[in-house]
Every structure is written in structure tokens, then in C-alpha cells.
Design brief:
Elements: H1 6-16, H2 19-29, H3 33-45, E1 51-55, H4 61-68, E2 73-78, H5 81-93, E3 100-104, E4 117-123, H6 132-140, E5 143-152, H7 156-171, H8 183-192, E6 195-202, E7 206-213
Parallel strand pairs: 1-2, 1-4, 2-3, 4-5
Antiparallel strand pairs: 5-7, 6-7
Helix pairs in contact: 6-8
Length: 215
């Protein structure tokens, strides 16, 4: 799976630098608080024997944990090749290689090549796309049962942090930019797709939500 967008290519290069660091951090500290909330929300929504699609899957720890707890299979896609390499290595080490499948590239550009899944997960991913509506629309369309995501809270200090990060990336001539998208608009788009919010928690920086499809 390939991507041609300069923003996506730059994002892939940017995050590739951190793959091994992410793995070392996870091995030392485990899940971040926002990730624990994401897992809790998915557990409440139900994931027994579920198929998973994680967009921006990183090193794979979230969906691999859910596989160990009863999910059936998982597909992970990420812009960063080294993230996928680490995810594949972890899957082999955890005995999950036969239940996982990984792809490198931009999900948004290749959404029609992915099968629907019971649970779709985006952990700190929507904030990496300039067009929030497009990433939400293409990803929620793949969710049969639950749609789970974590985004930055929309407050002055997250906006300031993102602005400083964007300036640093510009100085390093990177096309990648992070964003603080409107949480209310994101919820409205997900609701319009036939989902209801079932779970929400937040940290100082992150907002985690899980929506389930209306019966």
C-alpha cells in the first residue's frame, strides 16, 4: 500500500524515527492513561471474537492486547514502515502472527481496499490528518460494531503545543503537521454515520471516546 501525499510521506518519515523508542517505553511503562481508557471503552462496547482494524496502529500494542483478551483477528495500518516492522516482530513474539495482518501506507487514500471490521480504532490519529472529516468518514464507514478514538482536547494549551510543534516541523522542512480538530464536529460526523457515544474519558491533554452502532 503506497501513499503519494507529501503530508503522509513526511508523517511516515517522522514517526519512523520513534518506533523503537515507543517499544522501549511500552516495555518499561505499559499503556498510557488515554490508551487504558480506550481499552476500557472498547471492553464496555464488547470485542469478544471481534475483527479489529487499527488505523495508525504504531507498534501494535493496543490491538494485540485485545487479541490476547478475546478478539479474533486484527489488521493494522500505519504510515511509518518501522512502526509496522516493530508490530510484526511483537506479533511473532506474542504468538499472534497468524491473527494479525499489517500494511504500510495511508489508509485514507486506500480505504476502499480494506474490509469492514467489527471494531475500528484510531489512537491519536485523527489529529495527524489535515482533513478530519475525510479520515473520520472513511474510517467510520469500516466499523460494524464500534468506533473508538483518542484526539487532543480543544483547549488553549493543546493548541499552543501543536502550534509550537508545527513551527519546529516547518523549520526542519517537514510537510507533516499535527492538528487540534473540533471534537464536537467529529462526534457529529460519527453520529451521522449511525453511531451513538457510549463512553468518554479525558486526561489533561487527550479525549477518548467509543461509539457503538445504533441497533
Amino acid at each position: 500500500m503506497s501513499c503519494c501525499c507529501p503530508h503522509s510521506l513526511s508523517a511516515g518519515r517522522f514517526f519512523s524515527r520513534f518506533a523503537r523508542r515507543y517499544r522501549r517505553r511500552f516495555e518499561k511503562k505499559g499503556f498510557e492513561p488515554s490508551q487504558r481508557w480506550l481499552l476500557e471503552g472498547i471492553e464496555r462496547a464488547g470485542f469478544a471474537n471481534a475483527t479489529l482494524l487499527e488505523i495508525g496502529s504504531g507498534i501494535g500494542t493496543l490491538h494485540q492486547h485485545l487479541l490476547e483478551q478475546g478478539a479474533a483477528s486484527a489488521v493494522g495500518v500505519d504510515l511509518a514502515p518501522t512502526m509496522i516492522e516493530e508490530a510484526e516482530a511483537l506479533a511473532r513474539e506474542n504468538g499472534l502472527a497468524e491473527r494479525t495482518h499489517y500494511r504500510v501506507g495511508d489508509f485514507v487514500e486506500q480505504a476502499d481496499t480494506f474490509d469492514p471490521a467489527d471494531v475500528v480504532i484510531l489512537d491519536k490519529v485523527i489529529c495527524c490528518y489535515p482533513d478530519a472529516k475525510r479520515i473520520v468518514a472513511t474510517s467510520v464507514a469500516k466499523a460494524r460494531r464500534a468506533y473508538a478514538y483518542t484526539i487532543p482536547r480543544r483547549c488553549w494549551y493543546t493548541r499552543l503545543g501543536v502550534a509550537i510543534t508545527a513551527l519546529a516541523l516547518r523549520l526542519f522542512r517537514s510537510d507533516f503537521r499535527p492538528y487540534v480538530h473540533n471534537p464536537e464536529k467529529i462526534e457529529a460526523w460519527v453520529t451521522a454515520a449511525g453511531f451513538a457515544k457510549q463512553y468518554q474519558k479525558q486526561t489533561l491533554v487527550w479525549l477518548t471516546r467509543v461509539h457503538t452502532r445504533n441497533s
